Amino acid sequence: MKYSNAKVFIDDKFKMTGFEVEDGKFKSFGDYKDGVDLNGKLVIPGLTDIHMHGAMKADACDGDVNSIKTIANYEMKVGVTQFCATTMTYNEDILAPIFSSMKEYDNSAAILAGIHMEGPFIAEDKIGAQNPKYIQKPDIDMTLRLDELSGGLLKIISIAPEVEGAMDYAKAIGDKYIISIAHTNCDYDTAKLAYQNGFSHLTHMYNAMNGIHHRNPGPIPAALESGVSVELITDNVHINPAIVRMSFELFKDKLILVSDSMRATGLGDGIYDLGGQDVIIKGNRANLAEKGNIAGSVVNLFDCMKTAIKMGIAPEIAIRAASSNPARRIGIDENYGIIKEDRFANFLVLDEDYNLEEVYIKGELKCKN
User: Residue 292 in 3-state DSSP?
Assistant: First the structure.
């Protein structure tokens, strides 16, 4: 199938061109006169969310492949064509069937590109919306067992570097997985040491960690100086727009937009569950009913990308932070996240205001708004 007359996001910029899709992949690019006329619409890669828990009443921790299907169908409809299902702080007995359910999903909608294990190896004093009763010390054998149950889907492990055994844990398996600083009370020196010993990422930057102070810098400047990747939630709740703009200036192509969405995403106000705790949803805010902590988000990655643009981030930079940057970080960019020859044709068609019109997966039109 050939497509013509489109502004295609190639090499991090828009180019007026056509393209051909064959056997589910981008075959070539050129000024084609035949095929589907896209009338000057924008074409960008399908987005990749490396940190999302759920949507449409379904959660990655339900331990049910039908929940993964529900999440994947929702993600596909909102332009997220690849995602990492993210788990919560639980013990191995609870996590085992959760990880097992992941490998049962057939990738019939959005692609399950991996698992992001957030907890249980975190710090209680920066618990956020995680459940403190399941916190434990880092356990390599447990991690490997869970990954095996998933069929090798585990990509990212979010832990606190100051907890007992965390440094040894990261040194031992940091070449196999992305070990990320998260839910931590660590200072700058501990974070720097962590990034020298197997850690290589920072989960939902600014949240559940010490902020930047001129005498106590904390983990964020350590991440910047160490050249690691960082996540940012741009739902206009977690981060002030001024800090979003500053973060893009500082971290550039190391910055990855994530949604951190929970099961209420795509639904309305009400009370929902997250990791066994009640969460009150009102508008765009999700807060624990008991403690009031922010409890993830109720927006999707496409909305986060659009919000970043509204906050003053150049569209090309925001698109890259939601597509090629995360795909490259989890090592799937040889297949997804970039519009290029021989990559799978997972792409989105947008209007000039960046509203989503069509979603394609492997060259097949899946959704039309």
Answer: coil
